[in-house]
Amino acid sequence: MRITRGFAGRPHGERDGRLPPGQYDARDDWPVLNAEVTPRLDPDSWTFRLEGSVAKPTTWTWEELKSLPWSEYRGDIHCVTTWSKLGVVFAGVPVDLLLDAAEPLPGATHVMAFSHTGYTTNLPLEDVSGGRAWVAFEFDGRPLAAEHGGPARLLVPHLYFWKSAKWVAGLRIMDRDEPGFWERNGYHDRGDPWLEQRYQGD
Amino acid sequence: MPLAVQAVGGWTVARVLDVRRETPRAKSFRLSPGQPFTHLAGQHLVVRLTAPDGYRAQRTYSIASAPGSPEVVEITVERLEGGEVSTFLHDELAVGDEIEVRGPIGGFTWTGDTPAVLVAGGSGVVPLMSMLRLSRSLSTGPPVRLLVSVRTPDDLYYAGELPGPEVTVAYSRRAPAGDTRPEGRVAAEDVGRLVMAGEGYVCGPAGFVEHASMLLVEAGMEANRIRTERFGPTG
Question: Which domain holds residue A166?
Fold first, then answer.
């Protein structure tokens, strides 16, 4: 460990146990970090699609998605740029329900989330199933704002937040892993904040 | 088209070669990394600080220097009140000190082979300065146009180096004497003059990026050719 001369850091005696290593509490801020122009998506033409290595490729319209059973996520989110936001509430449709409808084939191992902007991010299939991922359309009881990915974004809160693709358009189910947008640019393929998997090689 | 995955190296120790004040709130730090540092214009690096008790803080900062000098890399940092890393860098870090860095990282990049329209709000000029410096180092490169929006002349980074035929500065609160543009936020007329077939790069605070990128789209640039980098309050 290399000590930085003169650095003490902010008072950190009672670090919040909800903060993964290297993260700080952004409190009321919700910094926005996109690589693209914020799209203004009309829910009337918005769709969500499951495709690729599935028995039943399926497309949901906005109305169809909103009519599915939804649930809440109450917890924390963590951005690779080191802010975390604690105690947030999202509502959305569990990805499990969508996977159940599309029926991934036996060899499926990973998914590529893709957005209406062309953004992509890859995840292990098990990280978007088992009650750990949503297609989220509400934040704190209100419709999700466009700058935060509205009308709907992927929500995978146990991984760094670039995995929670904004303006999500669907998931392509894959039989192998392949890097998405940030992952090709050096970011980690999985992105577990508790293991500090920020960059390729972590 | 499949692209190669870019490896991000581990932490390396970088020695401070030079500290230069850019504005009352911003300083540039010239660093000598322990390993050759080969970045693309527009990328950033991570700075990590370690306290004697093992407490660590890390933040990402855009690289201001042009690619091509792997033994030296320069960042410009705005001092954020209460920001534990930026206040340390401003108030404590001195020539000869060592900090840990990692990188380069990021896909907000220009490689010098397409025309580029660059729009910066405040401290968002830093990665675009790397692009401008690259552009100026190319004898026969494609055209580049840079628009920088700042509140007052005191807020302008690289004030001695920026001026050139390809650079416009728009002052939102107070312009210097002799400036013919009325003070105000960046408007359609400002970006309309910049637009050309090529890539767009917009960097700055989130609200500025939303505004400026929509202006570029309205002025005829394709949204999918515009890349953005938004600076949040990350201390």
Answer: 46-195
Rounded to two decimals, the pTM is: 0.87
Are A4 and B233 within 8 A, CB to CB?
Answer: no
B12-105: CATH architecture: Beta Barrel (2.40)
Q: Please report the residues numbered 52 through 81 in chain B whose beta carbons come closer than 8 angstroms to any beta carbon of chain A.
A: 52, 54-60
- pLDDT band of A90, cuts 50, 70, 90: very high
Closest CB to A7: pick one of B3, B7, B88. B88
Identify the pLDDT of residue A34: 67
Instruction: Quote the CA–CA distance of A128 and A99 in Å, as a whole number.
Output: 9
The pLDDT confidence band at residue B234, using thresholds 50, 70 and 90, is: very low
Question: CATH fold of B116-231, please?
Answer: Rossmann fold (3.40.50)
CA distances for B219 relative to A171, B126, B181, B193, B200, angstroms? 33, 24, 19, 9, 12
Share of chain A above pLDDT 90, in %: 79
Interchain CB distance below 8 Å, B232 and A184: no
- B48 alpha carbon, distance to own chain's centre: 19
CA distances from A162 to A94, A174, A189, B39, B219 (A): 18, 19, 11, 22, 29
Ordered by start, the domain boundaries in chain B are 12-105, 116-231
Q: What is the pLDDT of residues B99-110, one digit of tens each?
A: 999 999 888 999
| Domain presence at residue A202 | no
Say which of B8, B98, B234 has its CB closest to residue A200.
B8
Mutation site, B29, B63, B88, interface A, largest A CB count within 10 A: B88
Q: Please tell me whether the interface predicted TM-score (ipTM) of this complex is above 0.90.
A: no
Residue A22 resides in a domain = no
Structurally, chain A folds into a number of domains equal to: 1
A201 domain residue, yes or no: no
Q: Looking at the complex, does the CB of residue A176 fall below 8 Å from at least one CB of chain B?
A: no
Q: CB A7 to CB B5 under 8 A?
A: no
